[in-house]
Amino acid sequence: MHGYNSVVTYRVGIINVTGYAGMESARLLWNHPAARIVAATGRSLAGKRLGDAFPHLASYDLEITPEIDADVDVVFSALPTAESAAACEPFIRSDRKIAGASLVATPGCYPATSILALAPAVDAGIVGDMAIVDAKSGISGAGRGTGGGFGYSEVNEDVSAYKIANHNHQPEITQELSALREGPRLRVTFVPHLVPMTRGIHSTCYMPLARQVSQSEVDAIYADFYRQSPFTRVTAVPPHTKHTLGNNMCLVYPKVDERNGMLVAVGVLDNLVKGAAGQAIENMNLMLGIDQKAGLDFPALYP
Amino acid sequence: MHGYNSVVTYRVGIINVTGYAGMESARLLWNHPAARIVAATGRSLAGKRLGDAFPHLASYDLEITPEIDADVDVVFSALPTAESAAACEPFIRSDRKIAGASLVATPGCYPATSILALAPAVDAGIVGDMAIVDAKSGISGAGRGTGGGFGYSEVNEDVSAYKIANHNHQPEITQELSALREGPRLRVTFVPHLVPMTRGIHSTCYMPLARQVSQSEVDAIYADFYRQSPFTRVTAVPPHTKHTLGNNMCLVYPKVDERNGMLVAVGVLDNLVKGAAGQAIENMNLMLGIDQKAGLDFPALYP
Amino acid sequence: MHGYNSVVTYRVGIINVTGYAGMESARLLWNHPAARIVAATGRSLAGKRLGDAFPHLASYDLEITPEIDADVDVVFSALPTAESAAACEPFIRSDRKIAGASLVATPGCYPATSILALAPAVDAGIVGDMAIVDAKSGISGAGRGTGGGFGYSEVNEDVSAYKIANHNHQPEITQELSALREGPRLRVTFVPHLVPMTRGIHSTCYMPLARQVSQSEVDAIYADFYRQSPFTRVTAVPPHTKHTLGNNMCLVYPKVDERNGMLVAVGVLDNLVKGAAGQAIENMNLMLGIDQKAGLDFPALYP
Amino acid sequence: MHGYNSVVTYRVGIINVTGYAGMESARLLWNHPAARIVAATGRSLAGKRLGDAFPHLASYDLEITPEIDADVDVVFSALPTAESAAACEPFIRSDRKIAGASLVATPGCYPATSILALAPAVDAGIVGDMAIVDAKSGISGAGRGTGGGFGYSEVNEDVSAYKIANHNHQPEITQELSALREGPRLRVTFVPHLVPMTRGIHSTCYMPLARQVSQSEVDAIYADFYRQSPFTRVTAVPPHTKHTLGNNMCLVYPKVDERNGMLVAVGVLDNLVKGAAGQAIENMNLMLGIDQKAGLDFPALYP
Asked: What is the greatest pairwise CA distance in chain C?
C-alpha cells in the first residue's frame, strides 16, 4: 500500500471461494490497490451472497456463482491440485492480457516453510544429503470441508503425528531442495503433526553439516540469501508462529548444534497466507509487473 | 483505503506502545493513509527497537523512548485511565493543530459492546428500567502487564465470572444508556466473565420490554438506528466474536423473547480494535475531518 | 472408594458407548467398586474392540455390539431422549433385580447447572417470578456425532449464542424450579452460548429479589440447602469450570447485587460428568442402595 | 484399585504441594489404597487450607505448612532439582521404615518420553549413533510459578522452539540411552517446543537405522520390550497426547521410513503424571513392595 497507487485495476476471479484458501484470497484482496474481485465460485453455496455465507466478507457486494461468469484478467484457483488443473484449463487457453508466465502453481504450505528454512544452507553447500523435517501445523491446514476427525473436542488439547514418512508433500520438498545444488537427491524424512491452533506452521528442520561451520558463518549465509526478500526475514531468536498470524511473512532461524555437527533450521508462517493465498497474490503481483508487496504489506495480528 | 489518498500526513505519538492497546494502535496505523507514527513510549522497554520488542511490528524503524520526544499532531494514550489523564495534560495545553474537540476518551471495551447492543432499544423507549449485561471477554482484555492469574495452563479450558455486580465499567454503561432517554436512571447489573480465547467480547444483554413489541418492529428499530454507521452492523442471526477478529466492526443482534416479554440483545467486537485502538483511530479520523473509515476498512481474520 | 468394599458386583450394560456420554460412563465405571461393564453397544462401530475405537479405554477387554447381548443388572442409555425411551423399554419390562425406581432420567447438563444454582433461593422464597439463565458451554456438549459447525478452526477463538430463548432445555428448567414453590410458574429466559473449551458449563443466573436480603442471609440459605450434598459445594468466591474438570462436583456461588435488588447465582460443572454420566452413576448408586459416592469420589483434573 | 486392598496405610509428606507436580501428587494420592497424605509444604501459601488454595483439592482436610511437621513414611519432593536435594537430606538420614532404595529421582518429563520411545531400538542394536529428539510440550511443563512469557494471550495460537540444542535435559537423554548398549555415546540433538495446550508431551524421535530392518521386525522388538510394562503401551497407529490426559500411560509408536533408512519413534504422555507425579507414585509402589499399579490404574480423560 504505502505510496503505491495503481492506475490499472485488474479484474480477478476466485475459483472455490468457499474453501479456506479461497476465502482468504478474498480477505486479502479487499485492500489490494490494483485488483478487484468480480467473480467467485463455490459449488455448495452457489446462489448465496458472499457476506451471508461468510460474515467477515460482508463488505463484498458479490454473489457466489457455480462458474466464473465475468470477464477476468486473473484467476485464483483454490481447488485441490487435480481438480484445479481442470478448472484452470479454459483460462489458460483463452487470450490473456497478462504477459510472461500465465500459470503459476504455488507450493503447498509444508514445502514452503521447510524449503525457505533450508534453502540457504543447501545452496551454500554446508550440509549433507540427509534432512529431517518435523512440521507442526494448525488445524486450518486440513481445509474447511473436512468432516469428522477435526472436531474441536478431540483436536483441542492434543498433539499427534500423521502420515509419518508418507505425506504427499515429501517429494515436493525433496525436489525443490535437491534442485538448489548439484549432487545426489536429498533423502528427506518428513513428519507432519497437528497442534491445537487454527493457523500457523512451524517446521523444525535438521541436516547434518557437511563440514565444520560456525554460527556466525551460518548467520551470514542466511542474511545474504534473504537480503532482497520482502517476505522472508531471518530472526535473531527462535521465531513464533504467532508473529506471522494473518500476514505474508516467513520467519527463518538457523542454529548450529556444534556438539553434534547438526544444523537446526526453523521456518514459521501462516499456512493460509504465505502458505497459500498470500503467496498466490505475491505471484500475481510479480506476473503483472507491479509492486511485489502490493496488498500484502501489513503487520501480523498480535497477540 | 480504497480510493482515499490523503494530501496531509499527520504525525502521531503513542504513549505506552508496550501495552496491548498501544501496540495494537501501531499495528493499525501502519496502513493508515493519513497518519504516521513518529514516537512511541514505554517505560520498561525504553531504548529497544520496536521490532525487537514486538516482532510483528518489525517493519517500523522506530525506537521506544521514555517520553514523546518528537513534534506530534496527535497523541494516543494507552495508559490506565488515571495515569492517562496526567500523561495527556501537556499535550492538551500546548497549541494543537487539530480543530474541534482536542481530547477524546474512548469508552472501555465492555461499555462499548453493551451500549451498542442496547442503545437502539433504549432510545426507542421499548424497554423498561432494568438491564442485565452478561459479558464474556477474551483474556487480552486483562492487559499485557498482568501477572499470575492469567497463565495459560489455568485460564485454558476454563470459564469464570469476576467482580460480579462490582466492576468499574458498570457506572459507565449505566450513564451512557440512561442518557439516551428521559426518566430515571437504568438499573444495570453487569457481570463480566473470562473465556479461553485471546480477543473478543460477547455481551448478552437482557431488558424486560416496556410494551408488547414484535420481532419485526425491533428489527426495524435497529436497522434504522445503525443505517449510517460504517462500523456497526445488525445481523440476521446470532453473531460470532470471530467474525470481528482483528477489525473494527461491532455486530449487533436483537431478539424478542415473546413468551417472557424480554429483549435479548447481543453485541460482539474485538476488544483491542473496536474496544480500544480501532475506536481511538476512528475518533482521530473524525477529529481530523478525514474519512471515518481511513485505515480501518478491512475484513476480520477468519477462520 | 476409600473404605468402600462391595460384596456384590452389579453387571452393567451401556447403550451407545460411542457417544461422549456413553464413553464417559465407561471411563468412570472402570474404578467403580460395585459395578462392572459386561456389554456396550454402538451402531457405527459395532464389531470393534472398545480400546481400538477409543484408545483411552484400552484397559477394557470388550467388543462393541449392536445390541446388549449379556445378562445385565443395570442399563445406562446414552442415546438422544426419544431414541433412549425406545431402547430402554425391553429392560424396564423384564424382571429386574433392583428395587424401587426402575427408571431414572437424568436432567440435561444445562438444567442441572441452573437448577442447582437457583434452587436454594427459589425454595427459600427470596426471589420473584422472573429468571434469566445465561449459560456458557464447552463444545463437547454438542456431542460426538455432530458434523460441520463444530470444527476446530471455526469454534476456536470464538464465542456465540444460539437458540436464543428457544432451546429445548428451557421448559425443563422452568418446570423443576417452579416445582420448588407454590405460586405461578417462573418465567425463564434461557440463552446458551458456546465457548472454546472441551468440557464445562458455567451458568450465570439472575433473579430479582422478592424482598431485601443480605449477602450473609443468602449465604446461610445456600449452605443449609446443600449441607448434606456430597457433590454440590457452595463456594466463597466465584467458581471456575476447571475446578470440576472430569469429576462429579457442582460448584455454586450466590451473590446479592444490593444496588439493583438482584440475585446473581453461578453454577459450574463438567457437562459429561455431573451433567451426564457421573450423575447417572450417582443415581445408580442410590437405586442400588450403595454409597452415593461409590466410584465418583476423586478430585478434578487441574490444571 | 480393582481388588487391591492394603492392610497398611503409609503416611506421606509432600514438599512443595503448591507447584504443579506437587499438587498433582495430591490429586493422584486421594485414591491410593495404601497411602495417605499427612503433611504438605509450600512456602508462599503456608497457613492456608489446601482446598482454599486449590479448590480441586477441597476434599483434603489439610493445612499447608512451611515444613513437614508430621511423622512420615514417604516423602515426595516436588522442588527444582538442586533445592530438592537439600530438602530431602534430613529424611534420607533418619531411620526410614521402607526397605531397599531409599531415594529415587524420577527423570524429567522430556527424558521419560524420548527414552521410552527409543529404548527398544537402541537396546536391540538396530540404530546408529545419532538421534534427533523433536519434543512438543504443553505449557504446564513450565511450572506454576513462571511469570511473564506464558500468559494466555501470547502462548495461545502459537508454536515456538526454545533452548535449541541447549536444554538441560539433553545430557540425561544421552546418558540413559547410551547406557542401554555398548559402544560410543549417542549424539543426541534435542529441540523442545511449546504448543498451546495445558498437558502432554509428544516426542518425535529420529535415528538412522544401522541395518535394513522391516516394520514387522521393529514391531516385534517393541512389543517384546514392553510386554511386562503396565504403563507403556505400543500402539498400532500414531498416538495422541490426549489419549493419556491425566493418567499414567506412555504410548509408543515406531515407524520405519524404508526409503531413507530412518526409524521414527513417537512417545506421548502426560507431563504431570507419567512425566512427574504419577511416575513418582509408581516408584513409591515399587519401593514399598506393593502393586505397581496401586492408585494409578484409571483411564485418561477423553475428550
From this structure: 62
